[in-house]
Write a structure and sequence with these properties.
The structure holds two protein chains of two kinds.
Chain A lengths: L5 E3 L2 E3 L3 E3 L21 E3 L16 E4 L2 E4 L8 H12 L5 E6 L4 H11 L7 E5 L10 H4 L2 H13 L5 E4 L7 H10 L4 E4 L3 E4 L1 E2 L4 E2 L5 E5 L4 H14 L4 E4 L5 H10 L3 E4 L2 H4 L3 H15 L14
Parallel strand pairs in A: 3-16, 4-7, 7-8, 8-9, 9-10, 10-15, 15-16
Antiparallel strand pairs in A: 1-2, 5-6, 6-14, 11-14, 12-13
Helix pairs in contact in A: 4-5, 5-6, 6-7, 7-9
Chain B lengths: L2 E14 L2 E7 L11 E4 L10 E4 L2 E2 L5 E7 L3 H6 L7 E8 L5 H5 L9 E7 L3 H13 L3 E8 L7 H4 L4 E6 L6 E2 L2 H7 L6 E5 L2 H11 L3 E5 L15 E3 L11 E3 L6 E3 L6
Parallel strand pairs in B: 8-9, 8-12, 9-10, 10-11, 12-13
Antiparallel strand pairs in B: 1-2, 1-7, 2-6, 3-4, 3-7, 5-6, 13-16, 14-15
């Protein structure tokens, strides 16, 4: 019997495969394609204290080997989320990680406190890394003292395990990982998207209304693997790795770099079955290599 | 039930410069209807996202769909080289489609409902399947299709299901101008409008419709096509049950909307 469970901050996941926040809604849309019970966790789209309208369109465009997005964290607000999305997820035997966004520390705290009484929220992932909103988000993730402060504030207002989701748009990812750990984060996840730009040369216009957007997809994977390696070697807390994962082979690569769990992001849009195919592919890999416990491969490449 | 699935090209034609016609055998045809679309995948790993293409026809045996599209980038360029027998990967069926039952209720009960179908440019193809479905449902269909020039692809096929008029920007066929110029010139009367075309045309139709119901099919840059990514939204007049911020998803709440419900 092969053991595929992994544990992060006391929460045990049946397997290490999740999906990246914002690429999967709260699972409703993709439940038509995949059995959510097969996933280690559903990571929900970022939710704020009040509804956010998001950015003007066009919000997405394709780039070589990936895409840019500037959705702007459109979300219906925490009340709708608790009344609609969490009950939906209660129908499934999978862990739920709620991604939280905000413009100010107070915004984040309001959401975190609201979720404290929600048993269906197993963990919180704090988005301090979205490149597409003017206030909050990435501003907290690029400044070490701001990251430290918000991590401490959130930890002081919730008993649920806290994952800080980090941005790759920094000079030293290891330093930011250490800052989050020192401030009390139970885990970190990375990478969020890399800020990019595309210009439509026929129309002489930016492809996105927001001008810049976050790049995701297979083209960013080597950057993500490198950062997961650097971050996981800088901290003792678990790392959730993501950035261009399309297949089980990609997922295993991230785990060997040091990730305890992995998320499929943009590739859900390309292959709606990608998450479950990763779960199955990882099982095949372990069996083929005679590995009885998936934890053996985490960070195995020194 | 939506799925990603392999289809097989039954035929491929070039209808006009840059306009191609693919008949694809696929299980998605069983549930497909007018106004819906499919995502078509390239075989180029650098161009990953499915290309949304509207359904121009569903075969009578419900075993194949017809896609008529304009070459607009590297994805559609690749599709233009597909040959009979080639495999093509599809995501579908996507979108809400036109509500034939609702359209049937929009006239006075004494005479058949008169639906005015307006298609502009690459907005013409989805109107063909709609004209077929509406005429089969007992609706009186009047089609007014607008083109750039005399390359009036699909126009003859509308005549089977509808009274057909044409407008061309250069005046080479039919009314010189746009579809609304042709509607006015021919004094066409109607109970409701169904339209697909470029945004300026849809804005003009929204205004032209006045008190009458107009269903318009919208287009936007899409990523997932299934309602998860929130990339392709349109501002709406009323709060919708999904977004709660008056942002409907074109890929799933649409692409067909009542014009009065969207702010375009």
């Amino acid at each position: 019997m092969i053991k595929t469970e992994v544990t992060i901050a006391g929460v045990t996941f049946k397997n290490p495969v999740m999906e990246g926040s914002g690429t999967f809604g709260s699972g409703m849309e993709y439940s038509e394609f995949v059995d959510l019970n097969r996933l280690g966790a559903v990571v929900t789209k970022g939710v704020a204290n009040v509804p956010w309208p998001g950015n003007p369109t066009p919000r997405v465009c394709e780039v070589y080997g990936g895409m840019l997005n500037a959705i702007g964290l459109q979300n219906p607000g925490i009340e709708v989320f608790c009344e609609r999305d969490l009950p939906f997820l209660s129908n499934y035997d999978t862990k739920v990680i709620v991604n939280v966004c905000g413009r100010s520390v107070e915004d984040y705290i309001e959401v975190v406190e609201r979720l404290s009484d929600e048993p269906r929220a197993d963990m919180l992932e704090i988005n301090v890394s979205c490149p597409n909103v003017k206030e909050g988000a990435i501003a907290f993730g690029t400044d070490p003292s701001a990251l430290s402060n918000i991590t401490k504030e959130i930890k002081a207002h919730t008993k649920k395990p806290v994952i800080m989701k980090l941005t790759p748009n920094v000079t030293n990812i290891a330093e930011m990982a250490k800052v989050a750990e020192d401030a009390g984060a139970d885990a970190i996840s990375l990478i969020n998207t890399i800020t990019g730009m595309k210009i439509d040369i026929e129309r002489r216009k930016f492809a996105l209304a927001n001008k810049t957007g976050g790049m995701s997809g297979p083209a960013i994977k080597p950057i993500a693997v490198r950062m997961v390696y650097q971050a996981s070697h800088a901290v003792k807390i678990p790392v959730i790795g993501m950035g261009g994962i399309a297949t089980a082979e990609d997922a295993i690569e991230f785990m060997m770099a040091g990730a305890t769990a992995v998320s499929v992001g943009m590739m859900n849009f390309v292959n709606p079955y990608a998450t479950v195919e990763c779960v199955e592919g990882i099982e095949d890999y372990l069996e083929r290599h005679g590995i009885t416990n998936i934890n053996e491969i985490i960070g195995c490449v020194e | 039930m939506k799925k990603k699935t392999e289809g097989r090209v039954l035929s491929r034609k070039c209808l006009a410069p840059g306009i191609f016609d693919l008949e694809i055998e696929t299980c998605l045809a069983a549930d497909a209807k007018a106004g819906q679309f499919v995502g078509v995948y390239t075989k180029d790993a650098s161009a990953l996202l499915p290309r949304p293409i509207s359904i121009c026809g569903v075969s009578d045996d419900k075993k194949s769909i017809r896609l008529v599209y304009r070459v607009a980038g590297k994805g559609t360029e690749e599709f233009s080289h597909l040959k009979e027998g080639d495999d093509v990967t599809l995501l579908g069926v996507l979108g809400n489609g036109y509500d034939t039952e609702k359209i049937k209720t929009l006239g006075n009960s004494d005479t058949p409902v008169r639906a005015l179908l307006l298609g502009g440019g690459i907005g013409v193809p989805p109107m063909l399947e709609l004209s077929k479905e509406l005429s089969a449902a007992g609706v009186k269909v009047i089609s007014v299709m607008g083109y750039r020039n005399s390359d009036t692809f699909l126009l003859d096929e509308f005549k089977k299901y509808s009274d057909t008029y044409v407008a061309s920007e250069d005046g080479s066929v039919g009314t010189k101008g746009n579809v609304l110029d042709a509607v006015r010139e021919n004094g066409i009367d109607f109970d409701c409008i169904c339209a697909c075309g470029p945004m300026p045309m849809l804005r003009a139709i929204k205004e032209f419709a006045g008190e009458k119901t107009a269903f318009i099919s919208l287009e936007e840059r899409m990523a997932c096509g299934v309602g998860a990514c929130l990339g392709c939204v349109v501002k709406t007049a009323h709060e919708d049950p999904h977004s709660h911020v008056k942002n409907a998803r074109i890929c799933t709440d649409g692409p067909v909307f009542e014009a009065s419900e969207v702010e375009i």
